[in-house]
Amino acid sequence: MCRNKLLFEYRSFGQDFGEAEEELNQLANKNSTESESYDYYILSEANTKYNVLIRKEKLIIKELVSAGKKLEKWNVNWAEDFPISKDFIENIFFPTCGIEAPQIEKEQYDIIDFIAQIINIDPDLKLVEVYKKKKEFIFNNCNCEIADNLINGAYIKTFNIESEVIEDVYSTLTILGINEAFVNTNYPAVIKQIIGLEPLKEYHIGNK
Fold it and tell me: Which of 22, 41, 43, 163 is least surrounded by Cβ atoms within 10 Å, i.e. has the fewest?
């Protein structure tokens, strides 16, 4: 199913967010929805523009429209129900991964066959399991989230502030005192660093 939903997002990852984390937890404790889930991200070195993942019986594809002024703008392009068709795999999935589609044998694939027969046999694709335990709430007209993640077993925290209205995100960051000390990034970029698919940009070698 083709969708269009533009969101301005501020997301950061780390082990401790200090006072900003305390403030977010206080807001979450007042009125939040808690959930646990498993998402499966599909990564390739050639793809730097799309977030491709399996979530709740759907193959979701989000496009990074722009990145700048501390925010990333994302568009939810596709939320395709399984089983997915050969046509979708050939003409949508592989092009977003930046990879030429191989010969697709079947007309449709359920989740298990898609993982086993399409993803796992392709050396250019990596499937990463992300367990999420998160709190979600509304604050200042923004969707806010704080979460504990296990990315292929590696623990890391994240928080996210997003809205379809860019001014609401900026004002929320100001209210919470969130500044450039926290790097604004996204799940695919962080996952690539954790699994070694993307080289480190900063080094501590030789530092005292």
Answer: 22
